[in-house]
Design brief:
Strand order of the largest sheet: 12-15-14-13-16-17
Shape: globular
Order of helices and strands: EHEHEHHEEEEHHEEEEEEEEEE
CATH class of the largest domain: Alpha Beta
Number of domains: 2
Oligomer: single chain
Length: 382
């Protein structure tokens, strides 16, 4: 029985490879597709772990093994406009972006679904570790994947609500070892392929990448308690909230953290560990996966992908923004990052962090002089 036509997004990795094989076995009419993001003259060491020419070759070979057609779709323009350019702009504005969220929201589950419809497909499938739950009333929910180490719902909060019923997650109810076992069972060439962890378009470190796009301008590291200048830097774009290492302060024996970033005045504010905790946040560019009146007041949230979910209370929610209060102060709440809402395992939506309470006051210092651009030493982020 043909269950419908599916466009399966294939990255050349084991998860999407197994997804294609499972869908074919389950009776779907499968079309394999890979989204091309890399430019004709890609930078050295970029797009190598995923979304690369080699990965496209492997995805095509897997499609041949599974016995489905395969297409390489050109999304270079969309990737440049929606992912790479905003990535640099956010760091220049003193914020910490998450390009993987933007990629899922604006490319994979927007542009790709439109392409699927053009090809006569009812569904788009991916290798995300997310569970799709179909309710009796016809509504679709996204829940955390069964492998807690691999759950990827954090990256999918921006999925257009009307697209949810058209998305399948074949490996969402499996753990990673089972997926690799199935890949071996199907004889797929990607069965032992290692996972990619880095940002695909960043060659080594984020700091090195940004050096080619944002001018280096000298500024000050300022203690938020005393207003004392405790160090200098070559650009606020090289820092993120909660960062402790690589600050190169005058008094290196004093432990300080980045608390606030002020690009306009070229100031990186630093303080102690307690100063890096916030009780309340506001988010914009929000997306809900249910009606606003149905949002529970008491929820769980994540402010970073690898952080544990924590209890919080929604203070206000509108179509454009929401405010919430944590049950306990949270460390390193960074503007530009995603705050994602949950009710148990169910994904409710999310938004982009705009501001936190308490705020840090702005103080103007003499305009710093420009210095000759040079690549900074790698500075580990929190």
């Amino acid at each position: 029985m043909n269950k419908g036509r599916v466009l399966c997004a294939m990255s050349g990795g084991v998860d999407s490879s197994v997804s294609a094989a499972l869908l074919k076995e389950q009776g779907y009419s499968v079309i394999g597709a890979m989204m091309r993001f890399w430019p004709d003259h890609k930078r050295v060491d970029t797009f190598d772990t995923c979304c690369s020419p080699d990965a496209a070759y492997e995805a095509r070979r897997v499609a041949d093994q599974v016995g489905v057609p395969f297409y390489l779709l050109d999304y270079r323009k969309e990737f440049e406009e929606n992912i790479m350019r905003p990535f640099v702009e956010e760091y220049a504005a003193g914020r910490t972006p998450n390009p993987c969220v933007n990629c899922n929201t604006k490319v994979k589950f927007d542009a790709l679904i439109k392409k699927a419809k053009m090809l006569g497909c009812e569904y788009v499938a991916t290798g995300h570790y997310v569970k799709r739950v179909d309710r009796e009333d016809g509504t679709v929910e996204f829940h955390r994947g069964d492998d807690p180490r691999k759950d990827q719902t954090y990256f999918l909060w921006g999925t257009p609500r009307d697209a949810m019923k058209h998305i399948l997650f074949p490996v969402g109810e499996m753990e990673k070892p089972k997926v690799r076992e199935l890949a071996e069972h199907y004889g797929l060439i990607t069965a032992k392929k290692p996972e990619s962890q880095n940002i695909c378009f960043v060659p080594s470190t984020i700091q090195e990448y940004l050096t080619d796009f944002i001018p280096q301008v000298q500024g000050y590291m300022v203690d938020i308690h005393t207003g004392e200048i405790v160090g200098e830097h070559l650009g606020t774009q090289y820092y993120t909230i909660g960062q402790k290492k690589g600050l190169n302060l005058y008094k290196s024996n004093v432990v300080r953290y980045v608390v606030h970033i002020d690009p306009e005045n070229k100031i990186v504010w630093v303080g102690n560990y307690e100063d890096c905790h916030w009780t309340t946040l506001s988010a914009s560019k929000v997306n809900y996966l249910l009606d606003i009146p149905d949002l529970p007041e008491d929820i769980e949230v994540q402010v970073r992908y690898r952080s544990q979910p924590v209890k919080a209370r929604l203070l206000k929610a509108t179509e454009d923004a929401f405010q919430l209060e944590f049950a306990e102060p949270q460390f390193a709440v960074a503007p530009g990052q995603s705050v994602v809402l949950y009710a148990g395992d169910r994904l409710l939506g999310g938004g982009i962090i705009d501001s936190r309470i308490p705020e840090t006051p702005a103080v103007k210092y003499p305009k710093p002089k420009k210095v000759k651009p040079r690549k900074p030493k790698p500075q580990p982020q929190a």
